[in-house]
Amino acid sequence: MLPAARYSLGALKNQSKPLHLVSRTVHTRTKPRISPPPKLRPTGSDHNANSITPFGWGLLIIPATTFGLGCWQVYRKQWKEGLISELERKIHMPPVPIPDDLSELNQMEYETVTVRGQFLHDREIHLGPRACIQHGDSHTAGGLFSQKEASIGFLVITPFKLEGRDDKILINRGWVPKRYLDPETRREGQVSGTVELQGVVRLPENRPQFTPKQRGAIFMYRDVERMAAIGGTEPYYLDATVSSTVPLGPVGGQTRVTLRNEHLSYIMTWFSLSGFTTWLWFRQIVRGKSF
């Protein structure tokens, strides 16, 4: 059959159908559009693997460093507690005679020794200003000073010649208020003759930061070497115990045996900083969130 005849036959068939059925048989060559799938956000693991730069990893040094400092303070706390226990043990040891070889005193700090000899008051040296360390009611024993004066005063450092030997050492006799700094104002307290007393061994003290260098006979810190040079003694230093206190004389017992132990607060500070910076790093670098 010819093409024209086929077309006519198809047209006749369509004319025999209702119009609404005819319209449904119309075909088009245009394909329906398919919407693309939604874009998926990268997961946390993908972000970790692809988005953290070397600089981001480098920022971990902050929490790592603060954590290390916290661990170091734990060690320091244990060391300081052991040192305090050792000082307490030494300070409560029974007194022993001062050794014949004075160099042994370098290994006896905070131990108590007994000495016998004479004070050389004409070479007296002063250390201060200092507050008085009061033991019980010692500040009224000699009637030397009032309660208001206890915050400002000086330590009296006097050369001491040991009996039966040529050695001389330095002895911190104790504390006096500022108005009694001049020895002439407390002549009754200047002990003469042979005396026996107990003293706590102290080693030289390093010059504190920002403290000016020593000038004159008033010292601001325990510079034993220079004190010995001025007093003409060996470089060894004792703190006289409170039992050495005499009426109108210096108040003995001016030895501080307590050490500052604030390492627990340092531990809490460093570990808190480590935890906070770790959380901040995770939030900013890993999660990509900003404030």
Automatic annotation (TrEMBL):
Compartment(s) of residence: Membrane; Mitochondrion inner membrane
GO cellular component: mitochondrial inner membrane
Signal peptide positions (record): none
GO biological process: mitochondrial respiratory chain complex IV assembly
InterPro entries: Surf1/Shy1, Surf1/Surf4
Pfam families: SURF1
Keyword vocabulary terms for this entry: Membrane, Mitochondrion, Mitochondrion inner membrane, Transmembrane, Transmembrane helix
Membrane topology: Multi-pass membrane protein
Functional note: Probably involved in the biogenesis of the COX complex.
Protein family per UniProt: Belongs to the SURF1 family.
Protein name listed in UniProt: SURF1-like protein
Source organism of this protein record: Anopheles stephensi
Lineage: Eukaryota, Metazoa, Ecdysozoa, Arthropoda, Hexapoda
